[in-house]
């Protein structure tokens, strides 16, 4: 008796609708042979990926009053994409981000450079920071430090570098593995 024959009709529908294209999360489950899939790693990536990204954003925004900032937040976000690459391969990690890594690197570098030089226009020094405090109804008092924008640029720069490394090194590794398998 097969697995689908032992299930009730309602269970068969739930089993078959799980693999519909609209619910795809990792492409490796649909492009790789079942024997090559790493189910436990795919499950861990599915659970940890959004959690690690949220933690990286916490590090980005809490960087001025606690340990963290753009560099550490970017590295943690990069590690989330490394986990996704390990679970799903190069195709999956490249389909996760809609922008190409060189674009992220360029935007991050542009933001960081611009924010670093803006104080010169106001008679300040390079990388000088200012604190602005204002009150928002229902949210209360909000304090924004201008160096947060520098950290956002660094975050995007580091994330772009990690994604570019995954794209270039990952494609070379996968090409070597494919060449060995053809032999």
UniProtKB/TrEMBL annotation:
<feature type="transmembrane region" description="Helical">
    <location>
        <begin position="67"/>
        <end position="87"/>
    </location>
</feature>
<protein>
    <submittedName>
        <fullName>Multisubunit sodium/proton antiporter MrpB subunit</fullName>
    </submittedName>
</protein>
<dbReference type="InterPro" id="IPR007182">
    <property type="entry name" value="MnhB"/>
</dbReference>
<feature type="transmembrane region" description="Helical">
    <location>
        <begin position="39"/>
        <end position="61"/>
    </location>
</feature>
<feature type="transmembrane region" description="Helical">
    <location>
        <begin position="142"/>
        <end position="163"/>
    </location>
</feature>
<dbReference type="InterPro" id="IPR050622">
    <property type="entry name" value="CPA3_antiporter_subunitB"/>
</dbReference>
<keyword id="KW-1003">Cell membrane</keyword>
<keyword id="KW-0472">Membrane</keyword>
<comment type="similarity">
    <text>Belongs to the CPA3 antiporters (TC 2.A.63) subunit B family.</text>
</comment>
<feature type="domain" description="Na+/H+ antiporter MnhB subunit-related protein">
    <location>
        <begin position="41"/>
        <end position="163"/>
    </location>
</feature>
<dbReference type="Pfam" id="PF04039">
    <property type="entry name" value="MnhB"/>
</dbReference>
<keyword id="KW-0812">Transmembrane</keyword>
<feature type="transmembrane region" description="Helical">
    <location>
        <begin position="99"/>
        <end position="122"/>
    </location>
</feature>
<keyword id="KW-1133">Transmembrane helix</keyword>
<dbReference type="GO" id="GO:0005886">
    <property type="term" value="C:plasma membrane"/>
</dbReference>
């Amino acid at each position: 008796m097969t697995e689908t024959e032992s299930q009730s009709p309602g269970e068969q529908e739930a089993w078959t609708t799980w693999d519909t294209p609209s619910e795809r999360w990792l492409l490796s489950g649909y492009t790789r042979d079942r024997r090559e899939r790493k189910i436990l790693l795919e499950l861990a990536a599915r659970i940890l990926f959004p959690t690690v990204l949220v933690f990286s954003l916490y590090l980005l925004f809490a960087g001025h009053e606690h340990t963290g900032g753009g560099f550490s937040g970017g590295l943690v976000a990069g590690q989330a994409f490394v986990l996704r690459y390990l679970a799903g391969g190069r195709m999956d990690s490249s389909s996760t981000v809609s922008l190409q890594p060189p674009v992220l690197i360029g935007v991050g570098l542009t933001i960081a450079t611009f924010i670093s030089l803006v104080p010169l226009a106001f008679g300040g020094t390079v990388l000088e920071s200012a604190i602005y405090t204002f009150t928002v109804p229902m949210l209360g008092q909000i304090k924004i430090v201008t160096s947060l924008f520098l950290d956002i640029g660094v975050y995007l720069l580091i994330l772009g570098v990690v994604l570019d490394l995954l794209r270039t090194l990952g494609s070379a590794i996968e090409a070597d593995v494919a060449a060995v398998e053809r032999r």
